[in-house]
Design goal:
The structure holds 2 protein chains of 2 kinds.
Chain A lengths: L26 H15 L16 E6 L5 H12 L3 E6 L7 H14 L4 E6 L4 H8 L5 E7 L5 H15 L6 E5 L6 H12 L4 E5 L15 E3 L2 H4 L5 E4 L4 H5 L6 H8 L3 H4 L7 E3 L12 H4 L6 H20 L4
Helix pairs in contact in A: 1-5, 1-12, 2-12, 5-6, 5-12
Chain B lengths: L5 H12 L7 E6 L2 H12 L7 E3 L8 H4 L18 E9 L3 H11 L6 E9 L11 E5 L6 E7 L5 E7 L3
Parallel strand pairs in B: 1-2, 1-3, 3-4, 4-5
Antiparallel strand pairs in B: 6-7
Helix pairs in contact in B: 1-2
Classes of the chains: A alpha/beta, B alpha/beta.
């Protein structure tokens, strides 16, 4: 949108003040985050797994939606940076949300918060909070509705770069419920920005957003065609509640057509890697043989997530006011 | 101002370091200039233990003023620090703040037996009680002068002087 004077994530010096979405960040910025994360990986392998960068800062994990992995990796990342972390799991269903969110945020700001890590079921919640807080407070979107999950997108890019070195020669397939997936949106933006020439989505029509091709992806409805010769296979979680709606016949039917098995994976390149943002539904979108198999990099994704979260928090905290 | 020849100065540093060398000694270079120097000294003294490198960006005391350095390189300490005699190598010793940051970082890898500091240029202006054991040259510079070590495509080192606006 050309009429916007500036990206709400950037300060007047063009530095990243909030991380809300990958959309609008250029390749240089994404690479800077990945490079910084690389320096943090070794911190987690040392005797003292801590550096003093964010000593004295208060970071609030503000989770309006349940999460184990994302919240824990943010907590570990903040602690390895020597920040104080406060975890809040807030049940959003009880009250009228807009008011509650801002009241909560105001109260925490009054406790001298320096950064909010926000997970919310409503798209745009992190933007809303970022627009409300005073300029010295930083906001990280840890997943908002169907909109974006930028840190997951970044840790996936880190994982791909770690195993494949480059982006410009890759063929990447994203398989499953793209329609409801904030992770898929962030991944697609990141992959195309970083110059991946071929991004495919593989899913039944009912699980794809309208005009998904406009995001720069090729659409496949058949696994055998879509997985052929790909370097990276990213599986998406199929939420159980989707099965109850009219979108899909049954979990067994879905697994038969779109579940990743060794047979289907054999169509990809022999050195292809398999990724999943978790939590996995074994036997629905991915077979256990594949999830635990030699091509799976699902657990390294979690480990790299810590370094990527450390990089994001340090870069935001270091931006000028 | 005529600047001394950095390549000759590295030789001086290596000679001066010889009396400090023991079986337990290891070289650690500070990014970026200190790593270039440490690599040359490592070869000149034919050390077998691999070289360590430190990027002190995560330990700097000016993070809240100037944020994260644009290009952070990973620190790499390929040996157990505990019990080692560490020779810390840097290009220019000025305020002493980077050396403090480097020592803090080293202690997060373990407990060294000792640390000595070897620098190419001591330009004065210390703000902390830090001194080098080995110094190839002492130069008197004004606060607005910035001395820098550069490496060309052949790997040759040279000093350059720049006026800053500060």
């Amino acid at each position: 949108m050309a009429f916007l004077s500036r990206n709400p994530q950037l300060n007047q010096h063009g530095e990243l003040q909030h991380l809300l979405t990958i959309e609008g960040l250029n390749a240089g910025m994404l690479r800077h985050i990945l490079d910084t994360a690389e320096s943090f990986v070794s911190v987690s392998e040392r005797e003292v797994k801590k550096i003093p960068l964010l000593r004295g800062k208060s970071i609030f994990n503000l989770f309006f939606e349940p999460s184990t992995r994302t919240r824990t990796t943010f907590e570990i990342a903040a602690k390895r940076l020597s920040a104080d972390v406060i975890n809040l799991n807030i049940n959003a269903s009880s009250q009228s949300k807009g008011e509650t969110v801002l009241d909560t945020v105001d109260n925490l700001a009054a406790m001298q918060a320096d950064m909010f890590i926000v997970r919310h079921g409503q798209s745009g919640a992190a933007h809303f909070i970022a627009g409300h807080v005073s300029p010295h407070i930083h906001v990280v979107n840890a997943g908002d509705g169907r909109h974006a999950h930028p840190t997951q997108g970044l840790l996936d890019m880190y994982t791909i770069r770690h195993f494949k070195r480059e982006f410009h020669n890759l063929r990447v397939a994203i398989v499953g419920d793209v329609l409801h997936s904030r992770v898929a949106r962030s991944q697609i933006h990141a992959l195309t920005t970083l110059g991946v020439p071929e991004v495919r989505v593989i899913a039944p029509k009912t699980l794809l957003p309208a005009q998904v091709e406009r995001m720069g992806v090729q659409v496949y409805h058949d696994m055998a065609q879509g997985l052929k010769d790909v370097d990276v296979v990213i599986m998406l979680r199929l939420q159980n509640e989707r099965m109850r709606g009219a979108l899909l016949p049954s979990a067994q039917e879905y697994f038969k057509s779109y579940g990743l098995t060794q047979d289907k994976l054999a169509l990809a390149r022999p050195d292809a890697i398999v990724m999943h943002p978790g939590p996995m539904n074994r036997g629905v979108e991915i077979d256990s043989d594949v999830a635990d198999g030699r091509q799976s990099v699902i657990l390294p994704q979690v480990t790299f997530g810590i370094a990527v979260h450390m990089a994001v928090m340090s870069i935001l905290a270091g931006s000028k006011q | 101002m005529q600047l001394p020849d950095a390549e000759k100065m590295v030789q001086t540093m290596a000679q001066q370091l010889e009396p400090y060398l023991g079986a337990n000694s290891v070289l650690v270079g500070m990014h970026t200039g200190g790593v270039w120097l440490a690599e040359k000294i490592h070869t000149l003294l034919s050390r077998e233990v691999p070289l360590g490198t430190l990027d002190v960006s995560f330990y700097r005391d000016d993070f809240s003023q100037s944020g994260l350095h644009a290009e952070v390189a990973p620190s790499d300490i390929p040996f157990d620090v505990t019990g080692r005699d560490i020779i810390l190598v840097d290009d220019v010793l000025y305020t002493g703040r980077s050396v403090r940051a480097a020592m803090n970082e080293l202690f997060d890898y373990g407990r060294p037996a000792s640390i000595i500091l070897a620098v190419l240029v001591d330009r004065g202006g210390r703000e902390l009680p830090i001194a080098a054991q080995v110094t190839a040259a002492v130069l008197e510079l004004a606060p607005n002068q910035n001395i820098q070590l550069n490496r060309d495509s052949q790997g040759l080192l040279a000093l350059s002087l720049r006026q800053t606006t500060v």
